[in-house]
């Protein structure tokens, strides 16, 4: 399979360079790449070598044109392959159309909550000649759906991609020729508020998104391209387009939506009964640059039926779907005219089987966070910012499915109908559809469940950004850092990581610092200043760039990002070191966090902050080295060494421990190689964990680092004990829970659908599964296979799809020994197998290339498949 810009189908390319990737099942000797525009050859590259990732930057792209890329590869023994794939350009971001809207706006905060009908737009196109091609480039803010002649064209849900619309706006492109089949054609765009017209709700009593996001009334910009036998035509959105009021009387990303079924026919909410069409209003639109969307779209992936229905009274009942999903309700009922149905969503119920909505209240609005303190959402806001929907029924069949909001829920309470009126109901999981690029299965059903729980919780919170939970839906840099390794092993994250990097770059503050979330929502707790985030949260930019380069090898992204990283370092250097180390939240979520001081209560706070700063410098130094900038590398590695010395002088104790001697302090000291004696520090850390009955008390960073160091130094049984301990994840997953909670313990102020502690899945891949993309890898070209044959596991099946091909590692215990089967892609720079010396291989492998105290190392580069008995 040939991938183009990390995509394999429905590929739109509107700018250079283009990244092309493939894999062969033999050692590659040479390759050639041809690019065709129609039948015309427009580019030819021929090279020697085994490179399977190539960047094309010498092609002249033309708008609304189809291109085919053909790769021919050759092996040493006469092998060859031909790979082909195609992409299409759209308008290259140069729109003829104008931003158009319905011109509605509310005058004060109270009016928002009263609701107003959404906007539907149309353009009628008359054709009297044969159509050869037709495409549309379009973006609707906040969300939009596109229909042509009554059929939906949009392939995803909750379009458009969330970002800082003042800097960049991602548009979509579609081939619409299959939808245009008659002389009169009607193009319909249904708009909703999304993130562009948020509620004036004061999240946590102070953050109003209308004051921090780029906002406006829902609007659209579009270009419709048509090609005929002897001419081309572009129809842009302009003053001739029309709008009317739609069937939604209220919609908000947090608070839900209200729909009037009496205003439209059937299931299509744009097939309105009495539309009052008027000319649209021209708008200047946001200032952001228009760029073709390149990430996977949000869509339905899983449907859950009702597992239990609890009847409260004649007109109220609660449906339990058995698992928490983030997504839509899909509901069919029989009702009478004007009957009103209300839906209330929740992740949990209390002991009386009443919905407990505290964990999903938007910004805690309406929640009593401490005795006598209830968060107020501001003027006109609901008393409790719960997830609610409602619809007014027509007589007969009524079908309600969410369109412009999504909810995190296991339970939904329906009011206004009796259970006999219910025909069908499903909960639909809706998220950015990331392709799985890793799988894990072993002999322990509970460990398998943990793997699935991590997968489900991560996906539940990805909707064009890596959101945290339903309460906020913000992309926190700290959470992204803690989960970056586990995310990249489990899902194809090349495109969404690239977008996330751009999201944080686009929100860099004037001082050069990086925000706590991207888009910036106003939160800057313990930030470095000037609206920037805490040190550990600012780490998201360099860290994600480094992870992306390691796994996907995009050197252009590395080079493009370096100037922003250098400005970020300058912004950090503006603060005195002693002051700078106070600018962080530390190892967030630690069990030993001082809850009386949530901003500064993390263990070893100043020490971990200093380590984050040190890490900033180490990463930028490596990036400079990767780009061949020796002088810059020397500059930043010199700065890093000075900070290391300062850390040692300030935080190292006389006994060799660091800071407050907490688990977090040991983990950070070992991870950043600050200890004089790693073995004694590891033993001290293990003793601390044993004293806590195998509980790792670290927060989100410490746990992520702990999985790395305990695998690196061969203490994998300790991690298994931690994962299995009753006071850890098992307590989180009681009562048939299928998602992770925000915090260990009582989770009193936490979400029941939060992925920040799911970093253990990377350990499943690297330790039990034995598959590691090495630190020095570029585009996953250096691989280490090092499975841990832990005594309490009898078999493991693990795989990971890299950009260079699929890796498999499977092992099983038999009476005669452990059978190990490994499959690795060809054309890697290096692939090493690491095995304990205690196993006798009896010449099943070539002689080892190296060894340490406990292991032999074998070169298995280009070995293909290996099967050994240990």
From TrEMBL:
Molecular function, one GO term: alpha-L-rhamnosidase activity
The keyword Hydrolase belongs to this UniProt entry's keyword annotation: yes
Record domain Alpha-L-rhamnosidase concanavalin-like: where: 312-431
Top-level enzyme category: hydrolase
Name of one Pfam family that matches: Bac_rhamnosid
InterPro entries for the chain: 6-hairpin_glycosidase_sf, 6hp_glycosidase-like_sf, Alpha_rhamnosid, Bac_rhamnosid6H, Bac_rhamnosid_C, Bac_rhamnosid_N, Rhamnosid_concanavalin
Alpha-L-rhamnosidase six-hairpin glycosidase domain ranges (all copies): 436-767
Keywords, sorted A to Z: Hydrolase
The enzyme's E.C. designation: 3.2.1.40
Domain Bacterial alpha-L-rhamnosidase N-terminal: 133-297
Domain Alpha-L-rhamnosidase C-terminal: 783-837
Catalytic activity: Hydrolysis of terminal non-reducing alpha-L-rhamnose residues in alpha-L-rhamnosides
GO terms for biological process, alphabetical: carbohydrate metabolic process
Protein name: alpha-L-rhamnosidase
Organism: Klebsiella pneumoniae
């Amino acid at each position: 399979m040939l991938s183009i810009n990390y995509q394999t189908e429905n590929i739109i390319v509107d700018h250079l360079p283009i990244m092309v990737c493939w894999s062969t099942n033999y050692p590659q000797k040479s390759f050639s790449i041809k690019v065709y525009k129609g039948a015309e050859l427009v580019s030819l590259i021929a090279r020697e070598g085994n490179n399977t990732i190539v960047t094309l930057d010498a092609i002249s792209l033309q708008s609304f044109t189809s291109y085919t890329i053909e790769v021919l590869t050759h092996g040493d023994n006469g092998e060859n392959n031909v790979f082909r794939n195609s992409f299409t350009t759209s308008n290259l971001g140069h729109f003829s159309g104008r931003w158009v809207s319905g011109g509605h706006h509310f005058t004060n905060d109270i009016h928002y909550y009263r609701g107003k009908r959404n906007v539907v737009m149309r353009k009628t196109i008359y054709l009297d000649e044969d159509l050869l091609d037709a495409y549309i480039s379009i973006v609707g803010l906040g969300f939009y759906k596109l229909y042509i002649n009554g059929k939906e064209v949009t392939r995803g849900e909750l379009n458009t991609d969330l970002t800082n619309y003042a800097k960049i706006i991602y548009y979509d492109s579609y081939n619409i020729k299959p939808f245009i089949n008659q002389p009169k054609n009607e193009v319909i765009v249904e708009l909703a508020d999304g993130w562009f017209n948020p509620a004036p709700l004061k999240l946590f009593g102070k953050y109003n998104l209308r004051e921090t996001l780029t906002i406006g009334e829902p609007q659209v910009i579009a270009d419709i391209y048509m090609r005929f036998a002897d001419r081309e035509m572009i129809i842009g959105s302009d003053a001739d387009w029309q709008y009317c009021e739609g069937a939604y009387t209220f919609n908000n990303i947090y608070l839900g939506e209200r729909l009037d079924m009496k205003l439209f026919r059937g299931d299509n909410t744009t097939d309105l009964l009495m539309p009052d069409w008027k000319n649209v209003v021209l708008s200047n639109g946001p200032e952001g640059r228009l760029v073709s969307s390149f990430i996977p779209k949000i869509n339905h992936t899983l449907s859950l039926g009702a597992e239990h229905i609890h009847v409260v009274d004649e007109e109220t009942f609660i449906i339990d779907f058995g698992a928490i999903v983030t997504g839509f309700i899909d509901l069919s009922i029989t009702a009478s005219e004007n009957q009103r149905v209300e839906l209330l969503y929740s992740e949990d119920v209390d002991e009386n089987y009443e919905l407990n909505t505290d964990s999903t209240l938007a910004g805690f609005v309406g929640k009593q966070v401490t005795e006598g303190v209830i968060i107020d959402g501001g003027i006109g806001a609901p008393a409790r910012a719960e997830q609610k929907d409602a619809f007014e029924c027509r007589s007969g069949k009524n079908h309600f499915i969410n369109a412009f909001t999504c909810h995190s829920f296991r339970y939904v309470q329906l009011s206004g109908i009796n259970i006999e009126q219910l025909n069908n109901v499903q909960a639909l999981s809706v998220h950015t559809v990331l392709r799985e690029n890793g799988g894990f299965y072993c002999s322990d059903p509970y460990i398998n469940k943990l793997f699935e729980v991590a997968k489900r919780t991560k996906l539940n919170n990805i909707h064009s950004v890596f959101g945290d939970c339903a309460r906020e839906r913000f992309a926190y840099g700290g959470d992204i850092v803690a989960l970056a390794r586990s995310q990249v092993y489990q899902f194809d994250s090349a495109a969404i990581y690239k977008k996330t990097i751009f999201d944080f770059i686009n929100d860099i503050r004037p001082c050069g610092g990086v925000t706590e979330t991207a888009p910036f929502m106003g939160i800057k707790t313990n930030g470095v200043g000037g609206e920037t985030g805490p040190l550990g949260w600012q780490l998201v930019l360099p860290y994600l760039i480094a992870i992306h380069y390691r796994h996907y090898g995009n050197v252009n992204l590395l080079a493009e990002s370096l100037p922003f990283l250098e400005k970020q370092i300058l912004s950090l250097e503006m603060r005195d070191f002693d002051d700078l180390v106070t600018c962080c939240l530390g190892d967030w979520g630690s069990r030993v966090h001082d809850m009386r001081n949530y901003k500064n209560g993390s263990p070893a706070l100043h020490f971990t902050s200093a380590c984050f700063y040190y890490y900033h410098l180490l990463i930028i130094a490596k990036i400079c080295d990767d780009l061949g900038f020796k002088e810059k590398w020397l500059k930043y590695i010199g700065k890093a060494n000075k900070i290391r010395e300062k850390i040692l002088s300030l935080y190292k104790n006389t006994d060799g421990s660091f800071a407050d001697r907490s688990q977090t302090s040991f983990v950070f000291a070992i991870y950043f190689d600050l200890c004089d004696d790693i073995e004694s520090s590891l033993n001290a850390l293990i003793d601390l964990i044993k004293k806590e009955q195998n509980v790792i008390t670290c927060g989100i960073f410490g746990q992520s680092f702990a999985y790395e160091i305990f695998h690196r130094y061969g203490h994998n049984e300790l991690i298994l004990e931690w994962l299995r301990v009753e006071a850890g994840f098992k307590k989180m997953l009681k009562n048939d829970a299928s998602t992770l909670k925000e915090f260990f313990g009582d989770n009193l102020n936490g979400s029941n659908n939060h992925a920040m502690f799911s970093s253990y899945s990377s350990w499943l891949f690297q330790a039990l599964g034995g598959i590691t993309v090495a630190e020095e890898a570029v585009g996953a070209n250096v691989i280490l296979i090092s499975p841990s044959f832990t005594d309490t596991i009898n078999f493991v099946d693990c795989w990971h799809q890299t950009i260079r091909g699929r890796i498999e590692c499977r092992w099983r215990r038999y009476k005669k020994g452990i059978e190990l089967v490994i499959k690795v892609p060809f054309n890697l720079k290096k692939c090493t197998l690491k095995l304990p010396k205690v196993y006798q291989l009896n010449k099943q492998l070539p002689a080892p290339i190296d060894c340490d105290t406990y292991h032999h190392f074998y070169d298995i580069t280009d070995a293909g498949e290996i099967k050994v008995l240990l």
